[in-house]
Design goal:
With 333 residues, this protein is mainly α. The protein contains 16 helices and no strands. Helices cover 63% and strands 0% of the residues. This is DUF4034 domain-containing protein.
Length: 333
């Protein structure tokens, strides 16, 4: 394969072409195509991913409220409404907005309504799990329940269990629990989070995105520790980091359905394999990403985190390095 020359692009829907099409409609206030797509979505994992992306795209508009007014009995609209409400509450919390408590209550009510409307759906429980991170200090009893294993932290384990019962190994549910672990004691050592991702991935079947979870914990650790570029390079060639990258490759990437893989997961895997000098394997993931990328985790290696251009430059450099190393290896073989 010739080395790609074009700069990658970001699109929240990535390789999900049907979702890319309906996103444009929904942003323009047209919701019929969204209803049709979600109604035809074949499994809970893809349903979870699509509803999350759609809600994030229209959380600042009233299109879902209008839809519910026109179709008050629509299950799809009710679930997407809970998604939007949760997204608004989380954004308000991150911004320190004074309306956060009100939006939090509204979002929790929307999740409970969606749960009663669609009892088999994991999304309302994922919404409640996402809201748990707003409970700083774990004042609510349901957010400090005993863990299923002694090495794990008290938390909203029943909410995770409810989502997991409906869609075993649901990617977003476990990521929300990981975010909760980070928020329990901000700035505290990441031991609890590392224990969680190892526990979650240990028993996951082949093809499960939970095998990528440890890579997120590695990124968070070096993001917090900072340090020089050299220190970050050394982080990824450690035995532990390399082993986790290769496990994610062989137990997730080699078994997952290409069009349904999360762009974030693919970028974390490409980033980890490149950092671990597994260039031939990294190139396989870069090829699967074409023509897309995500700013995270590349931005954490740039001088100014959040600089999209610098993150894109680094992605292109890593892709070229992986291509060059893999091509050289093929010539020697």
């Amino acid at each position: 394969m010739p080395m790609p020359q074009a700069r990658p692009v970001y699109h929240p829907a990535g390789h999900d072409a049907p979702l890319r099409a309906v996103l444009q409609d929904l942003k323009a206030g047209r919701w019929v195509s969204t209803r049709n797509l979600l109604t035809e979505t074949p499994d809970w994992g893809l349903w979870t991913q699509r509803t999350q992306i759609l809600a994030a795209a229209v959380a600042g508009s009233d299109v879902v409220r209008t839809w519910r007014q026109e179709e008050p009995r629509s299950v799809v609209a009710t679930v997407l409404h809970c998604r939007v409400a949760v997204e608004r509450a989380l954004r308000a919390h991150r911004a320190g907005h004074r309306q956060t408590p009100t939006l939090w209550r509204e979002a929790a009510d929307a999740c409970r309504l969606a749960s009663s409307t669609s009892p088999e759906d994991p999304v309302p429980w994922i919404g409640l799990l996402a809201l748990a991170q707003l409970d700083e200090g774990q004042r609510w009893e349901e957010h400090r329940l005993p863990a299923p294993e002694p090495m794990l932290f008290p938390g909203p384990w029943q909410l995770l269990a409810q989502a997991d019962k409906r869609d075993p190994g649901n990617r977003e549910a476990f990521h929300r629990m990981l975010q909760f672990a980070y928020q329990r004691r901000p700035g505290a050592p990441l031991t609890a989070a590392l224990n969680f991702v190892q526990w979650a991935s240990a028993s996951a079947p082949a093809g499960s995105a939970l095998h990528v979870l440890p890579l997120y914990a590695h990124v968070e650790r070096y993001r917090r520790e900072g340090g020089s570029e050299r220190a970050l390079d050394l982080h990824w060639i450690t035995e532990d980091a390399t082993r986790n990258a290769l496990r994610a490759l062989h137990l997730w990437f080699d078994h997952a359905m290409p069009g349904w893989m999360s762009l974030l997961d693919l970028n974390h895997l490409a980033h980890a394999l490149w950092g671990a000098h597994q260039f031939h394997d990294a190139l396989r993931v870069f090829e699967a990403l074409e023509p897309f990328f995500t700013v995270v985790p590349w931005t954490y290696r740039t001088a100014v985190p959040g600089d999209t251009e610098a993150a894109t430059d680094l992605f292109v450099q890593a892709r070229a390095r992986s291509y060059g190393a893999a091509k050289g290896h093929r010539r020697r073989s």
